[in-house]
Structures are given as C-alpha cells and as structure tokens.
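Entry:
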Amino acid sequence: AVEQRDTTFSEGHEVFEDPSVPARVAWYSRFGHPGFPGGNSIFAAHVDYVNYGPGPFAHLTSAAVGDALYVTMDNGETYSYTVRSVEVISLASLSMDAVVFPALDSYTERVTLISCGGSFVPNANGVGGEYNSRVILVAERYVP
C-alpha cells in the first residue's frame, strides 16, 4: 500500500516523514508524480522494522545499475524505469537538495527510492533504534 506523506523539520533540517506503518510505502507527492517528464517521484519504505520483519524495500540493496524498475499506478498503468544508481549514504552526508532537486531535462523522469541502510544502532534503552545511513536508489526513464 502506498500513502501520501510530506516532510517535516527536525533539528533545523528538512526530513521525510516515515511511512505510518512498516508495511506501507510513503510517496511524497509534492516532489513528483510517476509519468511526468522533468519530475522526481520520491518513495520511501522500511527495509525491516523491529518486531515486524522485512519491509517493502527489504531487497533495495540487491538492485543493480541497469535493472528495470516498474511502478504500477492505481489505474493499472505501468511505467518502466532503468536503475541508474544504488548508494548507501551516511545520514551526516545526506543532502535533501541532492535527493529531491536533481537537474533533469524535460525528457527525463526520475524515481527515487529511499530506505534505511548501513549499521543499525540500538537505542540506549534497548527498545528500537535507527540505521546510520540511507539507501538511495535512482531510476530514470526517457520520454521523447
């Protein structure tokens, strides 16, 4: 299931809201919509979650440059993209501008998938924790 989410501010930085539950994929509609050239559609989901198990993006790091990525819309229309990069980026190095506002020509459409990655750092109280990096997959399609 895909749900619309937005961004919020934390410690002076704009960050994406997490999906509301571990089984959902968050879509940040104000940044882009699949099927529209010149835009960047951004989705986020968990790779896994404490006391839940594997999430929707559990296999995100298994993708490789050149792989196909398919996005199927509610109306059944499917868009095909080609994976251009899969990177694990530390939270300290992650730039919202680089993820959200890449330079695109009017013929290129981008889909960016974001999830947790790197090392899992448990909370001091032993309940839950946070990954220290993010996996960023970028896929594009050319629309003449």
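The radius of gyration is 15 Å.
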